[in-house]
Amino acid sequence: MDQVKISPKFQVVIPKAVRESLGLVAGQRLQVVQYGDRIELVPVRDIGGMRGWLAGIDTQVDREPDRPL
Question: Whole-angstrom Cα distance, residue 4 to residue 14?
């Protein structure tokens, strides 16, 4: 597991292996999410790039008897 150090300006460098694995590029935006004592950086993707990512998903969901279609 990689570790990073916070600079005096509160900046961090994302390790090269992680950047390459996620396809991150300079200038790309990340959403910062706090979960308790943990920070997650989530890449903000262009909505056009999301096209087709749910292709093939099973849309048949068992519903409760009191929930009509």
Answer: 7
d(CA 67, CA 58): 19
**Average pLDDT, integer, range 5-27:** 93
The label of the residue with tokens 């390459």 reads: 20
Rg (CA), the chain: 19
Cα(17)–Cα(19) distance, integer angstroms: 6
How far is Cα 8 from Cα 10, in angstroms, rounded to an integer? 5
Predicted pLDDT at 50: 74
Q: Where along the chain do its domains lie?
A: 18-46
